[in-house]
Every structure is written in C-alpha cells, then in structure tokens.
Give the backbone structure.
Amino acid sequence: GSPTSPSGQSAVAVNGSWTGTAILPNAYSTTMTLQQNGSDVSGTMRIAGALNGPITGTVPSGTRTFLWRANHDCEVWSGTLTVDGSGNAMQGPLTIDRTGCVPATSSGSGTLNLQRH
C-alpha cells in the first residue's frame, strides 16, 4: 500500500516528538511532544525561556497544516505549521497575543521550524 492517504480522507500525522527553533526574532530552542486522535491534537510545547506548557490543535482533514494554540500566563500563543512532503518537518508563522496582559504589552510574532525525532 501507499504510505500517504488520498486527499480529503485523513489528516496528516503530527504525533510524536519534534525539536527545532523558534525565531522571535532571536533563536530559541523548541521542543514539542504531540498526541493525535484523528484531527485533534494535544501535547506540550517548550520554547526555552519563553513558553512551557500544554498546547492543543487540529489538523484539518485533507490538509498538510497543523493549527495550534497555547495559553501561557496572560499570553495566547498560536500558529499554523505546514508539514512538508516527508512528514518529518514542519514550519510556519507564530503569533503571541498579549492583549490580555495587565498592563497590555505589544503582541509579537515569529517563525517556528521543527523536525520530527
């Protein structure tokens, strides 16, 4: 059989351990451990010195994207990662919404690049 599923039938697999870099604009070591059940994803994410905690997300059926979100203190981190054709790398933009912080501080953005291990 084929290692890939026809488009529209199932979500791309993102479960497992991922490591890489978050550019915020400095580079921070990043690890993500994910469990996937169909299109639903949960797990933990650690960006050294910036974020360490649970994340949730979805992999829309028939796509190669992983939409994720993490709440950290008063910040909401989120992003959209695109999984490459090998299924062993993903990258994309991330945003940090700090409007819920008191006092509110400017929000941030960056890029995440991860490899499956």
Q: What stands out?
A: The first strand starts at residue 16 and ends at 23. Residues 1-8 have pLDDT under 50 and may be disordered. The chain has no helices and eight strands.
